[in-house]
Amino acid sequence: MRNRRQEDDVTATSAHGVPVLVETRRRLAEMREEFRADGRAVALVPTMGALHDGHRALIRHARERADVVAVSIFLNPRQFLPGEDFDRYPRTLDTDMDACRAEGVDVVFAPQRAEVYPDEPWVTVNPGPMADVLEGERRPGHFDGVLLVVLKLFNIVRPDLAVFGEKDAQQLALIRRMVADLDVPVAIEAVPTVREADGLALSSRNVHLSPAERRSALSLVRALRAGLAEAGNGAAAVLKAGRAVLAEAAALDPPVRTDYLELVEPRTFRIAEADASGPAVLAVAATVGATRLIDNVPVVLGGAARS
Ligand code: PAF
């Protein structure tokens, strides 16, 4: 039995620290009008559920920045390609509600698919050239699905600001670009990647890693840190150091199968030129066992690096 309060009055339940679970866009729109009438600023944290400490950092940021914190939990089928892990993606609404309660979330919007997609959309969002590289190249159509659902969530919730993680750096850059290009009236704020003590970036997909796979998966952050240490020596040195770590990781048991390790320009995600200097993103994607992982670090090429 789900432990939750449904479609309740936000003021009454928030006073008891219990987030209101809203499943319909109609009820959400009513609540939004109440917040607007009261002049309360609303922050949205869009998620696909399976909340972990990385999401909690996003929620805390939202809590600091707005009067009302709304978390959306929607496992968006349109951003998964055929054969990807939509079916095995963790679905944990009860524990997600516990996390939201602990973080003082006011509203959890957890719609069914038909609430978000009452009809198959004919008009969609084209992510443009930024989706031609890295994740967009490996997962064609993924960012079309991400931007479509994010834009729909913005239009349904109409937040004043929305918070995303730097862990999905290309997604974040694309959302910023969509908001700028389409004049979407929402401020986008970013929160740095949250890591385990040993450096593994938090991800909802980490639950699929066996202990041995988890050990191999640490090669991703090792590669990023090896690259970061070479930032002062330029792009080629960064890539050489990072790729050397991944070459060794290919021989681990279980092996790390690298998709890419690339340096990109942070706003456009264009591949950095060999003589690039200044801010860049060092991004990696690899599969360990059946689990595909991504990670990245900001670097400053030819200058001081931050870890
Ligand atoms: O980052 C995610 O969890 C998803 O891509 C998002 C932004 C919630 C859209 O489904």
List the SSEs and their pairings.
Blueprint: E1 5-6, H1 10-15, E2 20-22, H2 25-38, E3 42-47, H3 53-65, E4 68-73, H4 93-102, E5 107-109, H5 113-116, H6 134-138, H7 142-157, E6 161-165, H8 169-181, E7 187-191, H9 211-229, H10 235-249, E8 256-264, E9 278-288, E10 291-301
Parallel strand pairs: 1-2, 2-5, 3-4, 3-6, 4-5, 6-7
Antiparallel strand pairs: 8-9, 9-10
Bound molecules: pantoate.
Structural key phrases:
binds pantoate; 37% helix; 20% strand; seven-stranded parallel beta sheet; globular; alpha/beta; three-stranded antiparallel beta sheet; disordered N terminus; 307 residues
Radius of gyration equals: 20 Å
What share of residues is helical?
A: 25-40%
How far apart, in Å, are the first and last alpha carbons? 44 Å
Largest sheet: 7 strands, parallel
Element order: H for helix, E for strand: EHEHEHEHEHHHEHEHHEEE
Which oligomerization state do the chains in this entry correspond to? single chain
What is the overall shape?
A: globular
Structural class: alpha/beta
Runs in which pLDDT lies below 50 for 5 or more consecutive residues are 1-5, 8-13
Strand order of the largest sheet: 1-2-5-4-3-6-7
Name every ligand kind in the structure: pantoate
Number of strands: 10
Beta-strand content bin: 15-25%
Number of distinct helices = 10
Average of pLDDT: 94
In short:
With 307 residues, the protein is an alpha/beta fold.
Explain this structure to me?
By secondary structure, the protein is α/β, with parallel strands linked by helices. Helices cover 37% and strands 20% of the residues. The chain is built from ten helices and ten strands. A seven-stranded parallel sheet has the order 1-2-5-4-3-6-7, with helices on both faces. Helix 7 crosses helix 8 and helix 9 runs antiparallel to helix 10. Bound molecules: pantoate (PAF).
